[in-house]
Structure formats: structure tokens, C-alpha cells
Amino acid sequence: MDDWIDYYDSTHTIYVSKLHRDVHFDGIATDIMGYVTAPDATVLDYSCGEALSAAKVAAACGTLILAEPAPGVRGRLSARFAHHPNIKVRALDELPALPDGSIDLVVMNSVAQYMKPDELDRALGVVRRLLSRSGKLVLGDILDPKVGMGRDVAALLKMAARHGFLTDALWGLARTALSDYRQLRTKIGLQRYSEAEMLAKLKAAGFAAERAERNVGHNPWRMSFVAKPAG
Fold it and tell me: Residues in domain Methyltransferase type (predicted)?
């Protein structure tokens, strides 16, 4: 995962425009809010990225913890949300120090594909310990091995047409074909899981899980799972 952390901590071009970036994060924040069930809930966004719309989520819960491994991104998060008293920014290696059962909702969106299977297993172990007995884990944007990159392109273009940045999206796709992201994706690859494989992984980590009706974010060809502590 370290190579991907370095990439997202750099000046990358994963978003085709500022509007694309804003729409992306706003959509994710809206989807996360749909999983917040109480105004005093403690929510953990695991590997949150820039989380530009995190204030929306914070307004719907008691405490929002933004956990981010990339130090540059983490610094920007701290500055951006310095005046939001219920938003806390943490490094991933700070999470094991949190009390057992102290989190009501954990969201890991667009994270699992960048982690080796054993890294994901360790992360799920930490999350399992942190979740309250009635808490939930939302594991989003899981890549299906049967679905190719063409579906990702189609989903991006559909979102771009809907929100008015189609021309930027077309130019952005051309740039991405020659970018460090494409090279890194080719070199390292992204982890993919079938529905059965992810359900088995979650069960092994101590969760009772099911596939959500829709994915978190804009891409309907990827999968999300909702898991609760088993037993």
C-alpha cells in the first residue's frame, strides 16, 4: 500500500477537474450520511483521502474521525477542518490506541483495492475491535474480478455528462493513459474480490456481512458491503 500512499500524497491528476473532485467527494459524503443512524454517533472514515465534504458528515453525527495514512493529505485535513470541533484527524497507526467498542460506524471506501490481502485482514481486525456491538462497517467500492476497466470509464463519463464536465473527462482519460497512476496500476495492480470472496473474508474477520443494494459513490459496477460484528 505504501506506493499508493506516496502517489495520493503527490500532486496527482486522478481527478479530471476541480468540479470532478468536488462532485466525487460530495457524493461519497452523501452516501456516508445515509449510514449514520444517530446524531451522537461516532464515525470513522478509514483512509479518507481529501474528504472535501466531510463537514456534511460531521453535521449528521456526534464525532467524525478522519483517518488518513498520507502525511501531506493529513496536514491539509487538519488545516481544512481546524474549526470543526467534532472532526478529528488521525493517522492510521493511531487507531489501535482508540478504546474498544468506541466507534458506531466505520467507512472504508475505495481502500481495499490498494491493500494487499493480509493488510486488509489486519485493518479489518482493528475495525472489528473498535466497533461497538451494534456498530457497522461499510466496505465500499470493491472491484469485481469479472468487471473490467471499461466499466470504470463508462461510469466516469456518465457522471461527467450528468454534472457538466464531459469534455474535461475525455481529456482527463487521455492524460490518465500516460500518467503515473496508469503505470502504477499496471505495475502493482489493484486487488479484486468476488462477492463470495469478500463475504468469506469478512466472516473470517468476525463479521456478519451482506452486499449492499448500491455501491458507495458513482460507480454502480463496483460493490459495497455492510458488516456487523458477529456473535
Answer: 44-139
